[in-house]
Design goal:
19% strand, binds cytidine-5'-monophosphate, alpha/beta, eight-stranded parallel barrel, 11 helices, TIM Barrel
C-alpha cells in the first residue's frame, strides 16, 4: 500500500527542537517531509541549519505575497537551499504567480488559497464578498493558469478542488488529538485522505508533548 504523506510543521526557532522532531517522527509507515516556516527561516540560525540538511523532503513555507519582481527575486535568493516545495499566496495575483513559476525551476511552487485560520466571517471582515468555498475555487483557477505544481487548501474543500486541480493538494488544519487552537477549517487525517488530499500538514498535534507517541497515535488513527 502507498504510504501516507505528512509534512510536519516545524513551527519553532530552536534547532534542537527541529532535530528532535526529525528524530522522533522517523518511522517506516509514513512518508515524512518537513515544513519550515516563517518562524524558523527568519531565526538567526535557521537558514544555516537548512542549508546543511541533506536527503530530506523540505517545504519552505515562506508564503510569498508581493509584486512579481520581488517574488521572483526572493525565489532566486533561496535557490541555494535546494528546497523541494515553496509557497506563494495566490492572492499575490496572476502576474506574480507566473513570474515565480518562471524562476522556480525544480522547486515545486505551491499556491496558498484561503488560510485555514479564516472562516466566512473573517473573509467578510477583510473585504472579500465571496464565501470560503467560492474564493478557494476561484483561486484554484488562477493556480491552473499559472501552472502551479500544488495548492494548499483546507481538507474541507479538497473534494471540490479536485474537480478543477489535477496536481498535488496539500492540506493543513488537521487535528487527530487536540482542540482546534487558531484553526477554523479542520478535519481529521483520516477524513482528509478520504476526501483526496495528497499531503497533510500537521504541526501541533505531532510536535507538542511526546512526539514519538503522537507519531504512533497518528499511524494508529490512519489504520482505523
Ligand atoms: O499546528 P498546526 O497543525 O495548526 O499547524 C499548521 C501549519 O500549517 C502551520 O505551520 C501554518 O503556518 C500552516 N498553514 C496553515 N494554513 C494554511 C497554510 C499553512 O495552517 N492555509
Amino acid at each position: 500500500m502507498k504510504k501516507s504523506k505528512i509534512f510536519v510543521a516545524c513551527d519553532t526557532s530552536k534547532i534542537s527542537k527541529i532535530e528532535k522532531i526529525i528524530k522522533d517522527t522517523k518511522n517506516n509507515k509514513l512518508t515524512i517531509g518537513y515544513k519550515l516556516g516563517l518562524e524558523f527561516l527568519n531565526s538567526k540560525n535557521g537558514r544555516i541549519f537548512l542549508s546543511k540538511l541533506r536527503n530530506k523532503i523540505i517545504f519552505a513555507d515562506l508564503k510569498l505575497n508581493d509584486i512579481p519582481n520581488t517574488c521572483a527575486a526572493t525565489i532566486k535568493a533561496i535557490k541555494d537551499l535546494r528546497v523541494n516545495y515553496l509557497t506563494i499566496h495566490i492572492s499575490s495575483g496572476l502576474d506574480a504567480l507566473k513570474a515565480a513559476k518562471k524562476i522556480s525551476g525544480k522547486i515545486k511552487l505551491i499556491g496558498v488559497t484561503v488560510l485555514t485560520s479564516l472562516d466566512n466571517k473573517a473573509l467578510k471582515e477583510i473585504g472579500f464578498n465571496k464565501d470560503v468555498k467560492k474564493l478557494v475555487l476561484h483561486q484554484v483557477k488562477l493556480a491552473n493558469k499559472a501552472k502551479l505544481d500544488a495548492i494548499v487548501c483546507s481538507a474541507q474543500e479538497v473534494k471540490l478542488v479536485k474537480k478543477l486541480f489535477k496536481r498535488e493538494i496539500i492540506t493543513p488544519g488537521i487535528r487527530f488529538k487536540s482542540k482546534t487552537n487558531d484553526q477554523k477549517r479542520v478535519l481529521t487525517p483520516y477524513e482528509a485522505y478520504a476526501n483526496g488530499a495528497d499531503w497533510l500538514v500537521i504541526g501541533r498535534d505531532l510536535t507538542r508533548g511526546n512526539i514519538k507517541k503522537n507519531t504512533q497515535l497518528l499511524i494508529d488513527h490512519l489504520n482505523q
